[in-house]
Structure formats: C-alpha cells, structure tokens
Design goal:
This protein has 426 residues and is an alpha/beta fold. The protein has 3 domains: 3-98 and 201-261, Adenylosuccinate Synthetase, Chain A, domain 1 (3-Layer(aba) Sandwich), CATH 3.40.440.10; 103-194, Adenylosuccinate Synthetase, subunit A, domain 2, CATH 1.10.300; 266-422, Adenylosuccinate Synthetase, subunit A, domain 3 (Adenylosuccinate Synthetase, Chain A, domain 3). Helices cover 32% and strands 20% of the residues. It is built from 13 helices and 20 strands. The strands form 5 sheets. A 10-stranded mixed beta sheet has the order 9-7-5-2-10-1-11-15-19-20, with helices on both faces. Strands 14, 16, 17 and 18 form a 4-stranded mixed beta sheet that branches. Helix 3 crosses helix 4 (132-141) and helix 5 (153-174) packs across helix 6. The structure holds guanosine-5'-diphosphate (GDP), 6-O-phosphoryl inosine monophosphate and magnesium ion (MG).
C-alpha cells in the first residue's frame, strides 16, 4: 500500500495529526502538499503532547523522512522556530527535505494578510494572519518567490522588487502604511539561505523514486475539504487545495499513484474563523462540545465554533476526494449526551436537499434536518475494540457510516495514539 492520503473532511482540526501518527510506524515518507503554518496538528505520544504547524507530523516517527512539497508555502522564520522548538524536545529533524519549488512567505505577505483582513471589517475571513492568502496570490499572479530563489541573490532581488512594486503602492496609498524596502526583505530572506540549502531537493523526483521502490508514502493533509479554494465555502476558505486532487499538484505525483484516501472526520463538527456552518450550535450543547472537546485552535488559540455531525458534508467530502475510507475521531466527546442529533439533509427555502446545494447562497440558507440517536452514557476512552463499545455507540458509528459515503476505517476514543478502535485493517 505505497501511497496514502490523509485529509480533513470538514473545516479542519479533525485529528489529522493523530491519524498520521497512527499510520506512522509503517511509513517511509510523510509529505505536506498544501497550506503552510496556518495548520496546527496535535499528536499525543505516551501522554506527551506535540503540535506541528509547517512540519509534517511524520517528523515524530523515527525513520520516517518528512517532506515539504512544492504546493506548500514556507515561512522560513516560522520553519526554523518550529525546528528549534522540536529539536529541543529531543526529536531528530535532520532528515527534513523541502521542495525547491515551494513558495516563500515573506514579511510583506504577513503584512498584506493583516491589513486586508482589517480592511474587510465585518466581512473578514478570519484568516490565521500567517500570510497564506497573499503568498498563494503572488504564486498565481506569477510574482512569487520560490525556495530556490533564495540561493541566487540577484534573481531574488529582481523578484522582490517586482513583488513589492505594486504592494508598496497599495500599502501606502490605500492602507496608509509605511512602504517596505527591498533591502530589508532581502536581508531577512538571505539570512535563512545557508541553513536552508542542505534541506532543499527536487521532492517530486524523490517521491516518485520512493514510490517506484514500493516505499510507503503518506501525504498528510492540512486544512480541509470545506476550506478548499474551489470546493469549500468560498470565499470563507483558505487559498490552497487541501482536497485529494491537490496532493498530485502539491507533490508532483500522478493521480494513479494514490492507493488510499482517508478522510478524517469528527463525530461532531467544528470550524474556526468566519463562514457558513449549518449545524452550528449557540446553546449549551455547543458550549459543552467546546468544553469537553477542548475546541481551541492549536495555531491561533481562537475558540472553535461547534455543532453536530453533518452527513451532507461527509457525503460531499467522500465524493470530492474519492475517499476510500473515513477515520471518525473524538467519539468519546459525546459520552455524556442522552440524545445525539445528526444532520442528514438540509431544508433550503422550503425544499429538502440531501446533497450539498449548488450555490453558496443556498448553503448560507441551509437549515439542518436532524435524526436523533440514543447516547451511551459511558466513558469509552478505554475501549480498544468494536465489541468493547457500548451498543448505542456501535449503532451511532454504523448509522454515520451508512450515511457518509465511505467505509469507516477506525474510530478515535481519545487523543492518545493507542486510544483508537480499528474497525477494519487497511
Ligand atoms: P488536526 O489539525 O486535524 O491535526 O487536528 P487538531 O490537532 O488541530 O485538533 C484535534 C484535537 O483533537 C487535538 O487536540 C487532538 O489531540 C484531539 N484528538 C484527536 N483525536 C481525538 C479523539 O479521538 N478523542 C479526543 N478526545 N481527542 C482527540
Ligand atoms: P488544520 O490543518 C482550521 C481557516 C482559518 C480561516 C481560513 C483562511 O489544523 O486543520 P488562512 O490563514 O488559511 O488564509 O485562513 O481557513 N484555517 C483553518 N481552520 N484548521 C486549519 O488547519 C486551518 N487553516 C486555515 O481559520 O477561517
Ligand atoms: Mg488543527
């Protein structure tokens, strides 16, 4: 089973880090293919908690080569901060490989992210403020800077000049901010070049060769399907393609290489930042999900909005990504509910929809249609097999599986690596 994709099936923070770590012992390469340090993945190993942002979670698995693919946007300062922090905890980071074609987040991208959000006022996206959107915008506008450019000072100077030309006009004339000088950007970016150089490679060649040799390569998704720039709740999305299709462009591999596509999905739903969310709760159930689920962002410390499981979103994710299976996480968070609602369809302007509506306007108006399941009223965090789970938890899992569009591979009953019930081997 050489190429496996793990991706988010909702709005992020589903437990992709845990799913990646769970597969870790059998993987040779762990690859990020989109996004940047807007991600925050938590891994709990023997009770010790780690958070990764730009680094692939496989960095924590001895013997696994962590790779940052060409589709990722790299903030060199954030990269080295993360490497240094994780090094200090005794993790070997020396095997990290970074694509020469990955784009660089410079200080002016972070500045643009912040000023545009402020400018949007009540219409803001609620970005992570890490410069992600402006960096992808430059990539698509062909005014971006790639990692390889950091090793050629005169090319870098030309590119920074071209990129700042228009931005400085916008910063000074629209946002009333100080213009950024080419010199200060060059000084900053060049200061990372020497340390970066030995990590940089043609990662597409590396990964294709690894797959030719039947090595196991895991593509660790960041963000999620509903945050995808094409398929998510546009414009309340990130600026990359976190769906399975994005793995091919973000790593430089062909689609026929991929064997398994695992969608990670919570037993309820959360979202950070602005945008529509049909099953969102504003009552004490929402507060309880937030509290028991510990729903606070790993990257930004923002509270996550909470709501019930949405099977329309699950089916949509199964379809858009071609999921071969789901990993259902955080089932244990629901332990204390007597009755658990699950959204099975939407009512939109008086009409029932069983699939995602065609337009965002309709999605904004979607009202969830709920089916109700009996709770199990028991702590399941110690369960390790399907048979050990209470009957009503089994019924809940089966019902979700039947309505979500792909088989369930495993169920998370706690944050720890071992707190997992595997339903079928993959
Ligand atoms: P990611 O961005 O998809 O990797 O997810 P995050 O790490 O941002 O958020 C998921 C949170 O849920 C983390 O704190 C995990 O430790 C935790 N988690 C993952 N799986 C489970 C589970 O099955 N049960 C519980 N209680 N927590 C889980
Ligand atoms: P992981 O990988 C949850 C959200 C932001 C905002 C929108 C755009 O941990 O699941 P951006 O900074 O990317 O331009 O912000 O996307 N967002 C995430 N939400 N989990 C994430 O990553 C996210 N990465 C971005 O909150 O709404
Ligand atoms: Mg996260």
């Amino acid at each position: 089973m050489p190429a496996i994709v793990v991706l988010g099936a909702q709005w992020g923070d589903e437990g992709k880090g845990k799913a990646t770590d769970l597969l870790g012992s059998s993987i040779d390469y762990c690859v990020r293919t989109s996004g940047g340090n807007n991600a925050g993945h938590t891994i709990v190993i023997n009770g010790e908690k780690f958070a990764t942002h730009l680094l692939p979670s496989g960095i924590l698995t001895p013997g696994c080569v962590p790779v940052i693919g060409n589709g990722v946007v790299v903030d060199p300062a954030a990269l080295f901060r993360e490497i240094d922090a994780i090094d200090e905890r005794g993790v070997d980071t020396s095997g990290l490989v970074i694509s020469a074609n990955a784009h660089v987040i410079a200080s002016y991208h972070r500045t643009m992210d912040k000023v545009t959000e402020r400018f949007l006022g009540k219409n803001q996206i609620g970005t992570t403020g890490r410069g992600i959107g402006p960096t992808y915008a430059d990539k698509i506008s062909r005014t971006g800077i790639r990692i390889a450019d950091l090793f050629d000072e005169s090319i870098l100077e030309q590119k920074v000049e071209a990129s700042l030309d228009l931005k400085n006009q916008i910063l000074a004339k629209i946002y009333n901010r100080r213009a950024i000088t080419v010199e200060e950007v060059l000084e900053d970016l060049l200061s990372y070049a020497e340390r970066l150089k030995p990590m940089v490679a043609d990662t597409s060649l590396l990964l294709n060769r690894a797959l030719d040799e039947n090595k196991t390569v895991l593509f660790e998704g960041a963000q999620a399907t509903m945050l995808d720039v094409d398929h998510g709740t546009y414009p309340f999305v990130t600026s990359s393609s976190p769906v399975s299709g994005g793995v091919c462009t973000g790593a430089g591999i062909g689609p026929k290489r991929i064997d398994r596509i695992i969608g990670v999905i919570k037993a309820y739903t959360t979202r950070v930042g602005a945008g529509p969310f049909p099953t969102e709760l504003f009552d004490e159930d929402g507060e309880k999900l937030w509290r028991i689920g510990g729903e606070v962002g790993v990257s930004t410390g923002r509270d996550r909005r909470c709501g019930w499981y949405d099977a329309v979103v699950a089916r949509y994710s199964a379809r858009i990504n071609g999921l071969t299976e789901f990993f259902l996480t955080k089932l244990d968070v629901l332990d204390s509910w007597e009755r658990i609602p699950v959204c099975v369809g939407y009512e939109i302007d008086g009409v029932r929809h069983d699939e995602m509506p065609m337009t965002q306007t309709e999605f904004h108006h979607a009202k969830p249609i709920y089916e109700y399941f009996d709770g199990w009223g028991k702590d399941i965090s110690g369960c390790r097999s399907y048979d050990e789970l209470p009957k009503n938890a089994q019924v809940y899992i089966k019902a979700l599986e039947d309505m979500s569009g792909a088989p369930f591979w495993a169920v998370g009953v706690g944050p720890g690596r071992e707190q997992t019930v595997v339903l079928r081997d993959i």
